[in-house]
Each structure stands twice: as structure tokens, then as C-alpha cells.
Amino acid sequence: MVAAGGIDDYFDNIQGTLVIENALGLSDPFAGITPPDNPTARTLSCSGGTTSYTATYDVDVTVTEYYYEGSKRNQMPLVGTSSPTSSSSTQTSSASANTQVGDTETTSDTQTGSVTSTGSGNNKTYYRTDQVIDTVQTVLSVVQTGSSPQMLPGTYSDFDLSCDTDLAPGVYVVDGGDLDVNAQYSLSGQGVMFVLKNGAGIKINGGADISLT
User: Fold this and answer.
1) Hey, which of 52, 135, 174, 205 would disulfide with 200, CB 3.0 to 4.6 Å?
2) Nearest CA to 157 among 41, 35, 47?
């Protein structure tokens, strides 16, 4: 690896790489080429498509009952607890672009039972049974339907994706900002060229889905 200036120290640690900095006599093979341009002003948008997501969940439900008994209706102490009972099922519902296989959500709900009684007067005894329902939902699969927004060629001040995006063929100029693809989104297109100018950069996060030709 040869450069007229400095080279990032990262490359020194790659086995088999010879790094030569501040080399003299180098020529720029692209010096005579004018970079492609497309001056049509564009703004990145997520409104061009109708993408929706559906997830299938494994739902585990555990129910535990708590028994209360006492001589005063509003002051019944806990006198016993049942052994938890469990059930499992599969459910399908809407999801978001951030939903990933393996995601787990745990909720707990307490259902207070009605009060009953036996006896009368000083011999009256009150009873109540409450249920605590613990639910664990685990994502088994995610399906995407619909179309992603399609961007058109032109000049963008930045290209920070906040949704799955498809590119129409052409030249995309990023002027001064960043081509930034976040981890949960996809960027796709055929016949696409990016031109970075005025300090524009590229940042593609791990987990992003890139398919460009």
C-alpha cells in the first residue's frame, strides 16, 4: 500500500501488507477525468413506499394464583400460593423495521379476584384469589411486505437512511454530508454510482443490508 501522504496505522497490523508512506513520484491515474455530476437537488425521504412488517411470536404464559383470607375485607393476609401453570402458543402480529428474530419481551399482569365470604358477624371470613400472569414473547420470524421508497438520482446534502431504500439507476451526488446506512436498514439499486464531494463520507454500520451494482 503506497501513498503520497500518511496511511492509517490500522493497515500496519494486517499480515502481509507492505505500507509505504510519503512516497515521491506518484501519479494520479484519474487526474484527467471529470467526476460525473447530477445537479438536480433531491431530499432523502421515506414516504415513497408502503413497507410493513409481520412477526411470528412464540408466546409462553405462566399463571400463578395467590390466596388471601382474613376476618377483615380490606386486610386479608396471603395464606397460600399455587404451583405455576404454563402454556405455549404461536401468534402472528404486526411488527416494526427494528424487530429482529430472537427479540424477547416479558410482561407481567396481576388480575385481582372478587371477594367472597362465609359466616356472619364476628365469625365472618373473607376470601380472595389473585392471578399473576407472566408472558414471554420471542420473535421466531419476521416478514416484510410492500415496497421500499425509491430515491431518484441527483444531489443530496446528506444520505442518512432511516428506512429500507431502493435507488433508481443514475448518479447520486452527496455534497458535504455522509452516506450513512444504519444497522437495521437495507440499501439496494442497480446501475447506481455515488459521487462524494466537499468532504462527504461513507458510514455503513454492521448489520446493514447493502445490494448495489
Assistant:
1) 174
2) 41
Indicate the DSSP class of residue 167. Answer: E
Residues 50, 147: Cα–Cα separation, whole Å: 5
Quick one: cell of 24? 515521491
* Grid-cell match 404451583, residue found: 83
* Spatial distance between the Cα atoms of 23 and 193, rounded to a whole number of angstroms: 30
Of the candidates 148, 180, 174, 192, the residue with the CA atom closest to the CA atom of residue 41:
174
The dihedral through the CA atoms of 15, 179, 103, 110 has a sign that is positive
Which set of grid coordinates corresponds to residue 151? 430515491
User: Distance (Å, rounded) from C-alpha 74 to C-alpha 201?
Assistant: 67
Q: How far apart are CA 80 and CA 204, in angstroms?
A: 56
End-to-end CA separation in angstroms for the chain: 26
Closest CA to 74 of 126, 122, 39: 126
What pTM value is reported for the model? 0.48
CB neighbour list of residue 163: distance below 8 Å, 6 or more residues apart: 46, 49, 51, 97, 148, 149, 185
Residue 181 neighbours by CB distance under 10 Å: 21
The enclosing H or E element of 81 equals strand 78-81
The top-scoring range by mean pLDDT among 2-11, 62-71, 118-127 is 62-71
> How many angstroms separate the CA atoms of 188 and 168, rounded?
9
- CA separation for the pair 196, 35 (Å, rounded): 9
Determine contact, residues 27/64, Cβ cutoff 8 Å: no
Query: Coil, strand or helix: which one is 175?
Result: strand
